[in-house]
Specification:
three-stranded antiparallel sheet; nine-stranded mixed sheet; about 20% helix; alpha/beta; about 325 residues
């Protein structure tokens, strides 16, 4: 290759490893803890004269997918394809793996806080059990953007060798700024309780989300933290949709559970952004009361003086729940 100086030099191509990252730890031994059976959630609010919060906003959930026939609680507000089926069906018995029903749990959180939204669930776990590779994640993000989603939620993060990061995913996210500038990518910060950078959460042009306690702005011990964490939301014993059946410890689930982790704080921030795009009610019809795009909504969220900011945890977001 001839450089501007006129000197010819041999350029050696650089090859980066195809890094695999986990869908967060949720084992008995881990501070984030396992799932616990929970009471039935109330129904999603019905569509009435005024639009519901999150109306027409499309939220992509890149995770473990959805059952072939989502339970009726979703009320037709979740879409998935034949390649996005969670292998754990809507019924059956355990033992459940630490990530079974992870995707549907997150979809349920989004709809609790943005009931007018449409969730587009896509399955990431193809090559590895509970893992996703850089080469799988990058095109999945681009494909969802091409499908017309406004917000993409990714609840998978991990460390990489020598902090090399995720080259393909970084390129994909940077590319969205040119091809789909309205799209926002929200990523869970991770459950290791450390300040070391996790990926893709610490990549540029994504919103990294940690966890805070339900009743105060304190950080639970499992939540990662640091200057690279942009926001935090309640992530302790979050209530959402699970599966019917018994797990390995003979705990019986009737389709609902509580679960702890930054995986479940991230969709709350995604839902809050959706509501700031489409607030529902009479505010829906007054343009200056809400953002035009998810990107603008995220910008307004981080500039909101009413929301507290905590060093290492970022903006503290506590979205309203529309389900009892």
């Amino acid at each position: 290759r001839r450089f501007p100086s006129g000197v010819e030099r041999e350029v050696t191509p650089r090859v980066y490893p195809d890094v695999a990252i986990p869908l967060q730890y949720h084992a008995d031994w881990h501070p984030a803890g396992p799932r616990k059976p929970a009471k039935k959630l109330g129904k999603l609010p019905r569509r009435r004269l005024f639009p519901l919060p999150g109306h027409k906003v499309r939220v992509g959930v890149l995770d473990t997918g959805m059952p072939a026939a989502p339970m009726g609680w979703f009320d037709g507000r979740c879409e998935s394809g034949p390649d996005d089926v969670d292998p754990l069906g809507s019924g059956g018995t355990g033992p459940f793996t630490p990530t079974d029903a992870h995707g549907r749990f997150i979809a349920g959180i989004v709809l609790q806080h943005a009931p007018g939204a449409k969730v587009i669930a896509r399955r990431l776990r193809d090559s590895f059990d509970a893992w996703v590779t850089d080469s799988d994640l990058a095109p999945a993000i681009v494909d969802l953007a091409d499908e017309g989603v406004d917000i993409i939620n990714v609840s998978a993060s991990g460390t990489t060798h020598d902090q090399t990061g995720l080259g393909a995913t970084q390129a994909a996210v940077e590319g969205l700024r040119k091809t789909h500038p309205h799209v926002v990518v929200v990523v869970a910060a991770g459950n290791s309780g450390i300040d070391a950078k996790f990926y893709p959460a610490s990549l540029t042009n994504v919103i990294s989300v940690g966890a805070v306690n339900e009743n105060d702005n304190g950080r639970p011990e499992f939540s990662n933290f640091g200057e690279w964490v942009n926001a935090s939301a309640p992530g302790v014993e979050v209530h959402s949709i699970f599966v019917e059946g018994d797990d390995a410890e003979s705990k019986h689930f009737e389709g609902f559970a509580t679960w702890t982790g930054t995986s479940f704080a991230a969709p709350k921030v995604a839902a809050e952004i959706a509501v700031r795009v489409s607030p529902g009610g009479w505010r829906q019809y007054i343009p200056f009361l809400h953002a035009k795009t998810a990107f603008e909504a995220a910008f307004r969220l981080f500039g909101d003086p009413k929301l507290p900011w905590v060093r290492g945890s970022g903006k503290i977001v506590r979205p309203k729940s529309y389900v009892s």
